[in-house]
Structure to design on (297 residues):
DNA sequence: GCAAGCCTGACC
DNA sequence: GGTCAGGCTTGC
């Protein structure tokens, strides 16, 4: 599933191969993936030139321009199974291809494919884009340690949920959230507000490291990643905890455990990520206690 | 039946 | 305001 590193990879790919190209034609094959009326979507993009490509968190946006008209932005959310690919116009149309855009004269085509249709596309003007992006917290990869610590302040829910909350910090999904917590040796139910500053900084570094590694590898294996969807083997990175329930921790051999937090499965090592005192024994983030840091394995 | 990201609505 | 359950979708 696409998280920040995958979106970053797509962004780089578009910058490399689609900048300066004209959107000659737009075809919406499934209207459900377009936010707003699809006729307006098509009209607002057709005949415009791709001027820049960027992302914030998992949101990708393509700036398109036409002489004498205000800028517009194609905003893409890949959701869970969304794919944005650049291929030849003649290439066979794969199932669940919902949008096609003919680019330039070279027979290239940008395609949006999404089996589960959690992803979507929309066309926004500059002000709308600003509002849209303002709803997101700082980008997980570009945030400074100060911004990261500030975002954690006053948060009392599970730190796992916080990491995945795009309004708090933009870019992490379930996989990298689990992996970053493991790297920083933090229990997924710990409360952000009660995590010691040194530990919070360890988490900041873990997030940076996990994302950087993923970006570095997806850059070369993205194609494979797209092809093999939904299997643990698809990741270039060796996962330490994600979907390894019952398997031995790669660090200490304890059995990896799984708990459901806010409806999402969370994987952690009970020895490397000890339960903080402020978390009650069986479940529920609410309990009395101190902010003590337990020792790691 | 489960998994995912994200939105809506309910709760305190 | 923060927090969280539920629902969407479909292949395994």
């Amino acid at each position: 599933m696409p998280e920040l590193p995958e979106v970053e990879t797509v962004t780089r790919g578009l910058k490399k191969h689609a900048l300066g190209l004209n959107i000659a034609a737009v075809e919406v094959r499934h209207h459900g993936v377009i936010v707003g009326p699809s006729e307006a979507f098509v009209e607002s993009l057709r005949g415009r030139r791709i001027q820049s490509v960027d992302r914030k968190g998992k949101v990708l946006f393509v700036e398109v321009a036409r002489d004498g008209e205000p800028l517009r932005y194609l905003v893409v959310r890949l959701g869970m199974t969304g794919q944005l690919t650049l291929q030849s116009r003649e290439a066979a149309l794969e199932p669940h291809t919902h949008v096609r855009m003919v680019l330039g004269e070279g027979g290239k085509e940008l395609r949006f494919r999404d089996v589960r249709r959690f992803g979507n596309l929309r066309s926004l003007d500059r002000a709308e884009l600003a509002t849209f992006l303002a709803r997101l917290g700082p980008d997980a990869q570009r945030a400074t340690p100060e911004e990261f610590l500030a975002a954690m302040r006053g948060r009392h829910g599970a730190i796992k949920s916080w990491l995945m909350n795009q309004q708090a910090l933009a870019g992490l999904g379930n996989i990298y959230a689990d992996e970053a917590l493991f790297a920083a040796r933090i229990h997924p139910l710990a409360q952000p507000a009660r995590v010691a500053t040194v530990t919070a900084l360890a988490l900041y570094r873990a997030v940076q490291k996990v994302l950087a590694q993923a970006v570095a590898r997806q850059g070369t294996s993205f194609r494979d990643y797209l092809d093999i969807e939904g299997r643990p083997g698809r990741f270039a990175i060796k996962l330490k905890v994600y979907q390894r329930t019952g398997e031995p921790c790669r660090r200490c051999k304890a059995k990896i455990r799984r708990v459901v937090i806010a409806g999402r499965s969370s994987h952690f090592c009970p020895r490397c990520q000890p339960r903080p005192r402020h978390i009650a024994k069986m479940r529920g983030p609410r309990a009395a206690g101190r902010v003590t840091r337990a020792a790691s394995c």
